[in-house]
Design a protein that fits this description.
OB fold (Dihydrolipoamide Acetyltransferase, E2P); alpha/beta; 23 strands; 450 residues; 7-stranded mixed β-sheet; Rossmann fold; 9 helices
Length: 450
């Protein structure tokens, strides 16, 4: 078996990314955008040992369950790869993968887990689009699957219609001004990314738009900001982010406000929250609110709660109802500053303290100075750093509430903590319909608790 070989396969299972799996000639094949039972003709892309990665070149016998994706870029961009599946099947595939990872990585047999879901489309409140050039014209779009070639878009079903006028106004402006587009190969060109948020606020919306540039200025930047302010009803803030590094990181701390406020506000979980341009915020608010409720419900009343990876401090403020003191830890300074003001705005400023730094550095200092505590963690996809796990085992909290966007690193971390902690409950949340990603909430307790 080698690259460019073609053959016919019958799909008999699903992989961790929701791709189809087939077996033939002693090889296991991974094929995206297919469903079990389908017969397909594929071309092999690459081979590693007895595993082959292939793409479909002809659908021979489609599944009767296959549905229209409803997006012209489906199968091309790397965004939503499961839109050809009925929604209940998407959930089934994701749940099965989570249960498989718990068994493989943590040695746990879970019979079933509940899954919370909300809207399948129009749920994303944030978008990040790279600038590119297509046939000599400036475009905004998504990266073609597996590449950094920009595919132009005008709409996206995951975001809803609020992004359409944004894309139209921005592309018209950059074409009119003939502003150069960043080239990853040469490191030259000005426009890199457009990042935008739409956040609900007092019955309407507020918007934040960031232009990421390979420099410190944008030609006619004030003119552009004023054009954006006319797009939507509701307050719009516009920012310029300077990023001259030759890497794939989108945002840097070099943020300058072109129009509006230095932070925008969101209404969520019964509060009004200040959100700076660099601050992390969940992209699906109905699902995020359910996670917040379930985290608070999972915590017993206690003296101290440590909220690691605390972001803008929404969870910290909500947790104040369950503790005499809450300590939030966040590495991004503007988010930490947001969190302090958010706690005061929510009426819990005297109970909540926020510290800026990495969890690896700050957590050992915090827990060495307190007694009994509960730990809430919501780390990035990489999961808990080994030093964080070491700190937890050296200064063990009574309970750990772990929110994860990566079941693979979550189950790895549970295995690392397994000698000291047992799992009380596991819940899933479909934060990202149409994609293979899923959020998990796990409640753990010390094994020797009465």
């Amino acid at each position: 078996m080698k690259a460019k070989d073609t053959l016919e396969l019958t799909i008999d299972g699903y992989g961790m990314e929701g791709e189809g799996i087939a077996h033939a000639d002693g090889f296991t094949f991974f094929v995206p955008y297919v469903m079990t039972g389908e017969q397909v003709k594929v071309a092999v892309d690459r081979v590693k040992g007895s595993v082959a990665f292939a793409h479909i070149i002809k659908m021979i016998s489609p599944s009767p369950l296959r549905r229209e994706a409803g997006c012209p870029l489906f199968g091309k961009c790397g965004g939503c790869t499961l839109r050809h599946m009925p929604y209940d099947l998407q959930i089934e595939v994701k749940k099965a993968n989570v249960l498989s990872l718990f068994k493989k990585n943590a040695g746990m047999e879970l019979a079933d887990v509940p899954v919370f879901s909300a809207a399948q489309d129009g749920y994303r409140n944030k978008i990040a689009l790279p600038f590119g050039v297509e046939k000599g014209r400036h475009v905004l779009g998504m990266y073609k699957r597996g590449t950094h070639k920009v595919l132009p878009i005008e709409e996206c079903p995951l975001h809803g219609d609020w992004i359409e006028p944004l894309i139209s106004v921005v592309t018209s402006f950059v074409r009119e001004k003939n502003i150069s587009v960043y080239d990853e190969g040469t490191g030259k060109g000005l426009l890199r990314h457009l990042v935008a948020r739409r956040l609900p606020y007092r019955g309407g919306y507020r918007y934040g738009v960031i232009f990421v540039v390979n420099g410190t200025k944008l030609p006619s930047e004030r003119d552009l900001a004023m054009r954006l302010a006319k797009i939507w009803e509701g307050e719009t803030s516009v920012y310029l982010c300077a990023n001259t590094a030759h890497n794939n990181v989108i945002l840097t701390p070099e943020i300058r406000t072109l129009l509006g406020e230095d932070a925008i506000f969101a209404e969520l979980a019964g509060g009004e929250w200040e959100v700076s341009p660099l601050s992390f915020l969940q992209v699906n608010f109905p699902v995020a609110e359910q996670i917040y409720r379930d985290v608070v419900d999972s915590v017993r009343e206690t003296d101290v709660i440590v909220d690691a990876y605390s972001g803008t401090g929404i969870m910290s403020a909500l947790l104040a109802a369950k503790a005499k003191k809450v300590i939030g830890i966040e590495v991004i300074l503007p988010a930490t500053e947001n969190a302090g003001r958010n706690a005061a705005r929510f009426g819990v400023g005297e109970k909540v303290t926020h510290l800026c730094g990495t969890v690896e550095d700050v957590l050992p200092q915090v827990v060495s100075e307190i007694g009994s505590y509960t730990l809430v963690v919501d780390p990035p996809r990489a999961g808990l750093d080994a030093s964080v796990v070491e700190t937890i085992l050296r200064h063990p909290p009574e309970r750990i509430i772990y929110v994860s966007c990566s079941p693979a690193t979550l189950t790895r971390d549970i295995a690392r903590l397994g000698a000291a902690y047992s799992v009380d409950s596991v819940r899933l949340y479909d934060m990202f319909p149409g994609t293979p990603h899923i959020e998990t909430l796990v409640s753990l307790r010390r094994r020797f608790d009465n």
